[in-house]
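Data availability (excerpt). The following record was deposited with the supplementary files.
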Amino acid sequence: LSTSDIRSIRNGLESEKPRIRIHSAAALVWIEGPLTVSDEQLSIISESLAHSKDAVRTRAIKSLYNLADPYPDFVSDYQEEILELLTDDYSHVQKYASQTAGRLALSDAETELKELTNHRYPWVREAAADALYLLNPSVSASPFPDDRTAESTRSCTECGLDISEYGTVNFCSSCGTSL
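Predicted structure:
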């Protein structure tokens, strides 16, 4: 990107439209790296967590996730918002809220994350299971087994697919039915 491109993105931080502000802030985090984030960008990201538009909330929580490693103290200040976003109506917000909760090891999120392992969308189930694993690595919670042996096998009540159960996550990967 050229200097003028980056300047244009920076100008987006001052837009009256929240969607342009959050996308500009997130783009600068991605382009320049999370260590160069400005107070203005942090403010835009935090304000956008409660926005009415799904895309704005999604971009905000995804930005928090990207900032969790270099700025864990800043992101931890938004623990209540992250926990609230786990129950958001929009699945992509739930996905990134799960990932952020896992990255920060938010133990208060465990109950909601367990519920999200039965979510209708696989990307939410995967993010929740991965987050649970990060909260307690000694207990396997991933619905995507690697080299482990299944603890048991049974058939899905909806589609009849044979299901191998690993750890505590029990759902059909084909139709999403909770078992």
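Summary of structural features: The first strand starts at residue 152 and ends at 155.
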